[in-house]
Amino acid sequence: MDNGKLRAAEWHHRFMQQTAWTINLRNYLLNRISLKSNPRILEVGCGTCAVLSQIHNENYRKFGIDIDIEFLKFGLTNFNYLHLVHGNGLSLPYPSHIFDLVFCHYLLLWVDNPIRILQEIARVGKPGSKVIILAEPDYGGRIDYPPPLQELGKAQIEGLQLQGADPFIGRKIRELTISAGMTILEHGVLNSQSEMGIDQEFIDSEWQMLENDLSNQLSNKEIQHFKQIDLEAWKHGIRVLFVPIFYLLAEIQGS
Fold first, then answer.
1. Of the candidates 225, 241, 222, 235, the residue with the CA atom closest to the CA atom of residue 146
2. Rounded to an integer, what distance in angstroms lies between the CA atom of residue 239 and that of residue 228?
3. What is the C-alpha separation between 176 and 173, in angstroms, rounded?
4. In sequence order, what E strands does 98-239 have?
5. CA neighbor of 30 nearest in space, from 251, 255, 253, 249
6. Contact 245, 191 (CB under 8 A)
7. Beta partners for 186?
8. Other CB atoms closer than 10 Å to residue 50's CB: what's the count?
9. Which of 129, 137, 209, 221 is the most buried (most CB within 10 A)?
10. CA distances from 214 to 24, 143, 221 (A)
């Protein structure tokens, strides 16, 4: 992800939009797992702490780790009550078996070795504790309409791959989690963005990200051509945009 093109505050705004997409799922899963009193929870790849700061239970001891120092500086400045560490999820700087819940949110899309991340998550979680993969997209299942925008979807996949991302990670999280030695309790797909409600702020933010993703492969003229088709389709109420976003709840094995 080329963070140099977008300031941490701008990324935080984008991340906050993503947290709105998953808020109902987060609340459902947190209520389901019934954490014990004063639990330690860890977000791997916490970014600017958009998600971690939205978990408001005061009894939770909230920890976060991210590889991006600018994101962490933003989190420390705005949420100084969180326990944040600069580090790599491939080698978490925590003892084994200390967390009651470990989660990530739009993380595995961006990592080179997702199975290693999940193995580390399993290591630092207590036996019997829970792991939540809150959101991982699968652009291979993307649906675009009208038809000219199908090429836009293909271009975004290529753009993500050029940035080192795995645009097909969503379909893989079940297999990866099992391979990391965890037991799956629930696995599914979030509602489409259309069902969540699309507004101008979303469209503007989406195009900010698209222009960033496509800048290395399409000319500005080509990008603006797709953008015009897209905006006209939204204006006339005929735009269909669906990217399946997978989630998973698992349990760390052990007695």
1. 241
2. 12
3. 5
4. 99-104, 125-137, 143-145, 182-189
5. 249
6. no
7. 249
8. 25
9. 129
10. 31, 18, 12
Question: Would you state the structure tokens that stand for residue 50, as one six-digit string?
Answer: 């958009």
Residue range 70-118, pLDDT digits in tens: 999 999 999 999 999 999 999 999 999 999 999 999 999 999 999 999 9
Q: Could you tell me if 43 and 34 are in contact, meaning their C-beta atoms sit under 8 angstroms apart?
A: no
Which helix (H) or strand (E) is 225 found in, with range? Answer: helix 220-235
Strands (E), the chain: 40-44, 61-66, 83-86, 99-104, 125-137, 143-145, 182-189, 240-242, 245-252
- Measured distance CA(210)–CA(205) in Å, rounded: 9
**What are 21-62's pLDDT values in tens digits?**
899 999 999 999 988 889 999 999 999 999 999 998 888 999
Cβ neighbours around 34 below 10 Å, total = 7
Cβ-based neighbours of 212, under 8 Å, separated by 6 or more: 2, 5, 6
